[in-house]
Amino acid sequence: MDPDRPLVRLAKNGNKAAFGKLARRYRDSVLTLAFDFLKDFESAKDVAQDVFMNAFKHIGDFEEKSRFSSWLYRITVNTCLDARKSNSRRRKFLLSKKGISDSEHKIDESIQSNGFDEILSKELNKLSHQERAAIVLRYFHDKSVREIAEVLDCTESTVRSHLYRALQKLDKSYRRRKS
Amino acid sequence: MIMKSGCEFEQLFEGYFRSDLSPAEELALLNHLKTCESCNVQLENFYIVHTALLKYQRPSVPSELKNSYYQQVNLSFGQETFSEKFNLLLNKLFGRRSSFARALQYAIFIIVGFIAGWLLFVPSEPDIVFQNSDPYQISQPVTKNDLKLVYAYLQMSEMILLAIQNDTEYYLNRELAQKLLIKTFSVSDIAVKLGNLRMIQFLNRMEILLLEASNLNEEELDESIALIRKVVEDSNLLREVEILKSYFAVKREQFGT
């Protein structure tokens, strides 16, 4: 049984304090998950706040077929995808107008990397959204394949497939850089 | 596509590293690895990536940003409750713990709770001052509290007996008599435990007197009081109470009550 269910029920009836408890329970996970996608703490913070506002707004639509945490992570992953798209558009616009250097350089500098960590942080950005979500949830958030399937709204075998492709791409990049 | 270059068993590698496969899947993979050279190579390669991902160090959230984020969440949905703050404090102190560390923490909580409960709710051992070893006696121990109770009873009895003898107007009423009668029963138990015959005899007489006084009514007041006074005089109760008082005063001093 989902341990969040009693609070979810209260929140569905408009109890803001109950949702507050849920928000505080997951605020760290949501923030770090957003960072794992966006690689920028400020953007991650904005996204995390949006996630909770949207979740509270739409909690009535949550059908409780999956865990609340999975539903919340799904909102986070989707919000991150939207944020990345709009960031990408903005970056292209700025580059074309002012020739501002790509902010990803900054991101890479901020990450204390040593060898493979550096390759990983760059290569993770190159994965497809679904593959990246699978890797991030599996490796950085300790989620099971079943939970990831709930978040990504797909089957477990699809998740395995995403994980496999992601590992394969990371492996190739690693060996290419090594050689 | 990348998929085409790989063997279908490669999809099971990630689950295999985490011991997450079903027994059938694991058996099939192991059998396949016995014969497939490329899968053996790929398994090693994937394992390097898998390990690197597990060890991957993400930068920690700057504390200023974290605080402002927390404040925003609190502003939107209300402040933390006490229990939440307590849990956060625990997380801060112990961080993310392994299941063993968590079990250890709960064990410590249980032990501390048990000790606190013991100290709060389990009464301390009474200070035994006398233990009757005679097998034919009621052999419960007598405590310091028992001695206190007996002495208080004797003081109260003395007051009443003096009032009766001196014929003071307000010397006795039914309520006081009933209260003292109830105390007589518990003091009798202590006297039996002590095996003090003089005390037992005194209490028997007091019991008769107090029973009579408990049933006083307005119509027969004069008659009853005369009877009570006669009992007090004939049975030398005042002298008895003085002797017993001095005896128990010595005992109290002896045991430091």
Describe what this molecule looks like in 3D.
The complex is a heterodimer of chains A (179) and B (257). Chain A is an all-alpha fold. Chain A folds into two domains: 1-101, Rna Polymerase Sigma Factor, Chain: A (Orthogonal Bundle), CATH 1.10.1740; 111-179, Arc Repressor Mutant, subunit A (Orthogonal Bundle). Chain A is built from nine helices and no strands. Chain A has helices at 5-12, 16-38, 41-58, 68-98, 103-110, 116-126, 129-140, 145-152, 156-178. Residues 97-114 of chain A have low confidence and may be disordered. With 257 residues, chain B is mainly alpha-helical. Chain B has three domains: 2-55, no CATH class; 63-121, no CATH class; 129-255, no CATH class. Chain B contains twelve helices and two strands, in the order H-H-H-H-H-H-H-E-E-H-H-H-H-H. Chain B has helices spanning 2-5, 13-17, 23-35, 37-55, 63-77, 82-94, 99-121, 144-165, 174-194, 197-214, 221-234, 237-255; strands at residues 128-130, 142-143. In chain B, helix 8 (144-165) runs antiparallel to helix 12. The interface between A and B is large, with 44 and 40 residues.
Quick description:
Chain A is an all-alpha fold.
Topology:
The complex is a heterodimer of chains A (179) and B (257).
Chain A: H1 5-12, H2 16-38, H3 41-58, H4 68-98, H5 103-110, H6 116-126, H7 129-140, H8 145-152, H9 156-178
Chain B: H1 2-5, H2 13-17, H3 23-35, H4 37-55, H5 63-77, H6 82-94, H7 99-121, E1 128-130, E2 142-143, H8 144-165, H9 174-194, H10 197-214, H11 221-234, H12 237-255
Antiparallel strand pairs in B: 1-2
Helix pairs in contact in B: 8-9, 8-12, 9-10, 10-12
CATH superfamily of the largest domain in chain A: RNA polymerase sigma factor, region 2, helix turn helix motif
What would you call the structural class of chain B?
mainly alpha
What's the N-to-C terminus distance of chain A?
Answer: 49 Å
Rg on CA atoms of chain B, Å: 42 Å
Q: What CATH architecture label of the largest domain in chain A applies?
A: Orthogonal Bundle
> Which bin fits the share of residues in helices of chain B?
over 70%
In sequence order, what are the helices and strands of chain B, one letter per element?
Answer: HHHHHHHEEHHHHH
* Most residues in contact, chain pair and counts: A-B, 44 and 40 residues
Number of domains of chain B: 3
- Quaternary state reads heterodimer
Give start-end ranges of low-pLDDT stretches of chain A: 97-114
* Total of helices of chain B: 12
Count of discrete structural domains of chain A: 2
Average pLDDT of chain B, rounded to a whole number, is: 80
The shape of chain A is globular
What fraction, in percent, of the residue positions of chain A are helical?
over 70%
Per the CATH scheme, the topology name of the largest domain in chain A is: Rna Polymerase Sigma Factor, Chain: A
Order of helices and strands of chain A: HHHHHHHHH
